[in-house]
Amino acid sequence: MNNLTPPNPAIYYEQVWQLTRQIPRGRVATYGQLAQLIPCPANVDPDEYHTFGARWVGSAMSACPADVPWQRVINSQGKISQRPGAEMQRQLLENEGIPFVKDKIDLRAYQWRGPGEEELPQQAKLF
DNA sequence: CGCTTGACCGGAA
DNA sequence: ATTCCGGCCAAGC
Fold first, then answer.
1. Considering the entire predicted model, what is its pTM?
2. Beta strands in A1-127 (DSSP E)
3. Which residue among A39, A75, A98, A111 is least packed, with the fewest CB closer than 10 Å?
4. Any idea which nucleotide's C1' is nearest the CA of A30?
């Protein structure tokens, strides 16, 4: 393994947590998705960010404050990453109404579209 | 000081 | 669909 933390963890982690707080109840986001939504940090090679960004998000989640809905961040396969506490995470998501099929969540149906997603229904309203 | 161990992901086999 | 692999850091035993 390698590069598990960005050059300036304090700044980066704060961005990850801020973004995670915007994920609505009943929706999920992936580590890689959050990394993409956050700009590549200064002095970081874009290729390196692409390769390790998701891991950095994971590191941020492992140290998140209590007010962050950490359970809504899952891996790119739509599954909960193996670790102690994984069972509770699944429990919390099911409580939010998210169904699991073969230990997997259907990202096409439950993945958060990102900040501004709420504006989409308004457009749909035009018809 | 050395060894272990990470909340990931995309491409190859 | 599934498993394997590279990436090559750094905090905590």
1. 0.91
2. 29-30, 73-74
3. A39
4. B8
